[in-house]
Amino acid sequence: MKADKLSKAKTIRVADWMSKRVLAVETFDSIAIARQLIAKHRVNQLPVLENGKLVGIVTDRDIRDAYPTSMMINLGKEIDRFADSVTVEEVMTHDVMVVRPDTPLTTAVGLLRRHRIGSLPVMKNSKLVGIVTRSDILDFVLSGAGIKSPKRKATRPRAAKEK
Questions:
Q1: Phi and psi for 70 in degrees, rounded to 5?
Q2: Burial class of residue 2 (count of CB atoms within 10 Å of its CB; 0-12, 13-18, 19+)
Q3: What is the mean pLDDT of residues 88-102?
Q4: Is the pLDDT of residue 7 over 50?
């Protein structure tokens, strides 16, 4: 029983590395608004809420794919009107994979990798409390947390021989 408690205590959880400040959009927001938020805050995805409930996620790729082609580049005003008329709900992913704050980080990493997605919203008691992204995982890796280097024998420097 002690070993079980010890292993749980050392488990790195999603809550330890998630971003707690989450930008989100509502289903009725336009893709122009979502695009502005993504660009301004340098994020790649935004959870989509409806009356405070998570109903989807919209990515920079979803938005880019929804925009008219570059063939229309000289039609800036028309493109802006188009972007204002399309809602996030029309381009978002509806079935969102989520994790809880106490989910082991290794489980979240496995989900990100296996499903080739960039983020997982973090839910607690049906509320969005954070998001864990590939960038958060890279921060974890770069921190060296939980990574143990092999032990080396301590060696004493040899004194140079005098001639």
A1: -65, -10
A2: exposed
A3: 93
A4: no
Amino acid at 158: R
What pLDDT, on the 0 to 100 scale, is given for residue 28?
A: 95
Q: How far apart are CA 72 and CA 79, in angstroms?
A: 8
The whole-number average pLDDT for the span 101-123 is 95
Query: Where are the strands (E) in the chain, listed by range?
Result: 25-26, 45-50, 53-59, 119-124, 127-133
Count the helix, strand and coil residues of the chain and give each as a percent rounded to the nearest 5.
40, 20, 35
DSSP bridge pairs for 77: none
Q: What is the pTM of this model?
A: 0.75
Residue 55 has a pLDDT of 96
Q: Which residue has the tokens 């570059």?
A: 70
d(CA 112, CA 125): 22
The pLDDT of residue 80 is above 90: no
Cβ atoms of residues 47 and 128 within 8 Å: yes
The 8 Å CB, 24+ separation contacts for 135-144 are 136/17, 136/18, 136/19, 137/17, 137/105, 137/108, 137/109, 137/112, 139/17, 140/12, 140/17, 140/105
Among 58, 63, 90, smallest CA distance to 79 is for 63
